[in-house]
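4.2 Preliminary Data

To establish feasibility before requesting continued support, the project team ran the inverse folding procedure on a target of 58 residues. The structure was first converted into the token representation described in Section 3, and no sequence information of any kind was made available to the design step. The complete token record follows.
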């Protein structure tokens, strides 16, 4: 590989962008999980989640 070409810098930039996106998505998932656990589910939400879980094929 020719290190003076723009390809290595583009690959490095693309890799860093992917890494930032993965970290950001993980942060959002963690935050949403924490917020969702902060309050109890309503009766309808609980029933919907239970039906969804039980209807899945194992």
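Position-by-position output of the design step:
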């Amino acid at each position: 590989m020719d290190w003076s070409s723009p390809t290595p810098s583009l690959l490095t930039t693309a890799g860093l962008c992917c890494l930032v996106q993965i970290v950001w998505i993980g942060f959002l998932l963690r935050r949403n999980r924490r917020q969702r656990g902060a309050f109890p589910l309503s009766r309808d939400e609980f029933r919907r989640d239970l039906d969804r879980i039980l209807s899945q094929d194992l």
